[in-house]
Amino acid sequence: MHSNDTSRRELAWIAVDWGSSNLRAWAMDAQDQVMADAGSDKGMLALAPERYEAELLRLVQDWLPDSGQTDVVVCGMAGARQGWREAAYLPVPAALRKLSQGAVSPRLEGTRLRVHLLPGLSQSHPHFDVMRGEETQLAGLVAEKPDFSGRVCLPGTHAKWATLESGAVTQFTTYLTGELYQLLADQSVLKHSVGSDDLDDPACQAAFTRAVAEAHAAPQAFSSRLFGLRAQDLLDSRLPSGSARLAVLSARLSGLAIGLELSDACREQPGDEPVTLIGNPALCRRYRVALDAIGYPATHLDGNSAVLAGLRLAHRALTDNGESL
Amino acid sequence: MHSNDTSRRELAWIAVDWGSSNLRAWAMDAQDQVMADAGSDKGMLALAPERYEAELLRLVQDWLPDSGQTDVVVCGMAGARQGWREAAYLPVPAALRKLSQGAVSPRLEGTRLRVHLLPGLSQSHPHFDVMRGEETQLAGLVAEKPDFSGRVCLPGTHAKWATLESGAVTQFTTYLTGELYQLLADQSVLKHSVGSDDLDDPACQAAFTRAVAEAHAAPQAFSSRLFGLRAQDLLDSRLPSGSARLAVLSARLSGLAIGLELSDACREQPGDEPVTLIGNPALCRRYRVALDAIGYPATHLDGNSAVLAGLRLAHRALTDNGESL
């Protein structure tokens, strides 16, 4: 038992989610359980190609055995053209169990790591679109439900909506929702009128759901409703004062941005089929409230769990194909 | 004749357009003709209330007679709450010939100037909205056409659409179009994909009008089309390269932002009634091309001429009422 325990605790491989702004690495044992994790703010935007290996080693070297090579499976922007080495996009339709077939290995200085950079997905019809990182979260969903069909929403700076059929992505659309919100809240004329909101506050939740419903019903009025928020701050005597006022107006701005997204994303969504939300719990809760406001049910899968499940699936596929280990 | 000429060239009053970022002053003779003009970048955002008078004197003191008081009629943000002194908004419906009835005078240190700050307009139904400065351009239109009825568009950072009935503003809506474009072009993920466009270039004009038509027809897809622009830059092999590529994608971004505005603003616009555009010629030409792309005719009135005509109208009303001179 004791020796079994010890063997289970030996490092088997390393999973890495390497985004634009951050990276996170997990030490995985032979049973695909997490033994340890580490992270840094050296995302793709902060690194030249020749600096990735040193950054990775800095984070994981204490996990490595004294000899031999360790497989590292990496998703995200490290595989972008401006990242470590480009892992070319797989065009849709793309079976998510086969992501690893598009993996590439960067040239390494040392011999302790064997790195596999997973590809993103691309689409040329009906519109141009790309994703890099989210496909691994979608693969995590498919790892749990191999024949999954349905709509999946991954909220964020660039929110993705993907249509899956039997475990394959057939189409997807990216919305600039999170970035739009942040630019408007931080840098536009609205910066004087918004702060941070709290959906547990009934006034904020009411302002949020009302804005979602308005933007969903009349998306063409989006940019006038944005200015209207500033005008409301100047003129509406019914608004609370101080931070409660900023919170209510922030909730409204968030609702307008998400409502605009939903007015497009839900156009062909059957009302009785739940949307699967993948991402951090707070943001997914916000989307669940928004979807509920316009009559759509939703389920939630944690984003970190999903990306780990997707990296496990890719690692297993690489192993089964004898591409490593 | 000679002495007539000379008398005509004596300063009668001063017209001022004092915006957020700039101000412009005109020396006016007794026939309401411009004798000279001056400007600076000391807009409302750059001045504390107590500094307006000195800044104005700095610009106009060479025009002033040796003795007596000179009337100064000011429109724009100098009359905002955070400006020189607040000239409270007039609620709509508002007759544009009566703007001067809402004028206020700031407390002055010296005795050479008699300053009248014109009010802006506000609206509480069907949505909250405000304007400050554009009402004087609208008054300029009414100075030329006293019983004007129709839709007027004033493009800009915060584009305004006003409905006029017999020389009065009955309703108006502000769109964040220009600010949205600038934030997206300068600070979003799209900044790598856009430069500056040129509507005289056929490829730019085609990209612009196509984007206007797309956003007008499907405003709900606005935020996905924004990201699609980035994806197109990554994937579309038919795009030109270098600065021609940035120009085409910029034209598309501009078309999406203006098309979103038009999809709302033109919803109840009769197709045979021209929109009157007031503003700088380049921007109004862009709007005229956009309106033409979706089947609406437009006429154009120069923004500087309009604001001067509006200030003249206000000055005459102040004079007629014996409020000054």
What name does the CATH topology of the domain at 177-303 in chain A carry?
A: Nucleotidyltransferase, domain 5
Task: Name the strands of the widest sheet of chain A in spatial order.
Answer: 6-12-11-10-13-14
Largest interface: A-B, 44 and 44 residues
| Averaged pLDDT of chain A | 94
Helix and strand content put the structural class of chain A at: alpha/beta
Query: Mind telling me which CATH architecture of the domain at 177-303 in chain A this is?
Result: 2-Layer Sandwich
Range of strand content of chain A: 15-25%
* CATH level 4 superfamily of the domain at 177-303 in chain A: 2-keto-3-deoxy-galactonokinase, C-terminal domain
| Main beta-sheet annotation of chain A | 6 strands, mixed
Task: Give, in order, the helices and strands of chain A.
Answer: HEEEHEEEEEEHEEEHHHHEHEH
Organism (chains A, B): Vreelandella aquamarina
Protein name (chains A, B): 2-dehydro-3-deoxygalactonokinase
Structural write-up:
Chains A, B: This is 2-dehydro-3-deoxygalactonokinase. Two copies of one chain form a homodimer. Chain A is of the alpha/beta class and 325 residues long. Chain A has a domain at 177-303: Nucleotidyltransferase, domain 5 (2-Layer Sandwich). Helices cover 38% and strands 23% of the residues of chain A. Chain A has helices spanning 2-8, 52-60, 134-144, 177-187, 202-217, 222-235, 242-265, 281-293, 303-320; strands at residues 11-18, 23-29, 34-40, 70-76, 90-91, 94-95, 113-117, 121-123, 129-131, 150-154, 159-165, 168-175, 275-279, 298-302. In chain A, the strands form three sheets. A six-stranded mixed sheet of chain A has the order 6-12-11-10-13-14, sandwiched between helices.
